[in-house]
Amino acid sequence: MTIITEGFLGDTAYSVRHLSMQDLVDIEALQEKVYAALPDQSVLQPLSTKEFEEILLQERMMLGVFVDDDMIGFRALVEPPVDAEHLGYDCGIAEADFPRVLYQEISNVSPDFRGFGLQKKMAKWSMEHIDISRYDYICSTVKPGNIPSLKDKFSQNLIVRALKIKYVDKLRYVFFKDLTATPKTYEFQVMMDMNDIAGQQQLLQDGYVGTGMESFENQWFVRFEK
């Protein structure tokens, strides 16, 4: 298969390519390894075999990172079904434009290769390969307190449009990015404790969006602007 890019993690050489159904066993094995190593397993919603198959059947939506023949990371985009849970509703996207929405889905990095910024590298590679003739918007969800994933989204200039219950009973930030828009300038800024759920929800209702995060005295704060 065609190699997207190659490089080194320290002294270890890696390669990146798009994944196919032939990679499913390795994908699920890596997901299981990553999930087992998490101190808080609630931060990751593992995907089922069926969900992985649906992504892999959408051509060029999933990339993998390999050291020799061993998969050490993967990241997926997905064209979501249009249903009542569509994140477009949370982000103010017109229903007619829902077919032009992509989700940033699951992203896993082997515990053996953390500390090399691989999460951020995979984000860059996957965003570079989006077909902008077909898609205008990126949406995603992240659990409050999942610091690596939150940093990942903010580093790509995704913004928080909502903080609400998704997937039946899970509290999630809803992230959004318009691929066609120029960067926005904001007039007002408020820093809010990430643990203050009601306060953040009120700011979002008042027209603010989450644009970043900072740590003060071992506590994380989200930057809201409008």
UniProtKB/TrEMBL annotation:
Domain of life of the native organism: Bacteria
Alphabetical list of InterPro entries matching this protein: Acyl_CoA_acyltransferase
Keywords: Transferase
GO molecular function, one term: transferase activity
SUPFAM superfamilies: Acyl-CoA N-acyltransferases (Nat)
Protein name: N-acetyltransferase
